[in-house]
Design brief:
By secondary structure, this protein is an all-beta fold. The chain has no helices and 10 strands. The strands form 2 sheets. The protein has a 5-stranded antiparallel β-sheet, with no helix packed on it.
């Protein structure tokens, strides 16, 4: 199955399990990959670093670190080394709940 940016559970296509309860992704990054600061008004987002290093909100995280972003908390994301991987769990799986800023 080809996923949309690593997302494989949630209310989108394609997906292995269609649900609004949760969204799950396994993502891979290259050094320098960057996501603009964003937040969710409804969902809590949990990021588990499974390989490599990242920087979020100016804080460096490495393999084994878990970051929890509650609703209305914003973060940016910068990959610090090639081969970085993470698992992201967002709950509930609220469509159109990503806001830049």
């Amino acid at each position: 199955m080809k996923t949309a940016k690593g997302w494989f559970v949630g209310n989108f296509e394609p997906t292995l399990m269609k649900t609004n309860d949760v969204e799950v992704a396994v993502k891979e990054y290259k050094k320098g990959d960057y996501e603009d600061r964003h937040y969710h008004k409804i969902a809590t987002e949990i990021t588990v670093i499974t390989q490599g290093r990242v920087k979020m909100n100016g804080v460096e995280y490495k393999k084994g670190d878990i970051i929890v972003m509650e609703p209305n908390e914003s973060t940016d994301f910068e990959c610090l080394e090639d081969g970085t991987q993470n698992v992201v769990v967002k709950y509930p799986g609220a469509n159109s709940d990503k806001y830049i800023g």
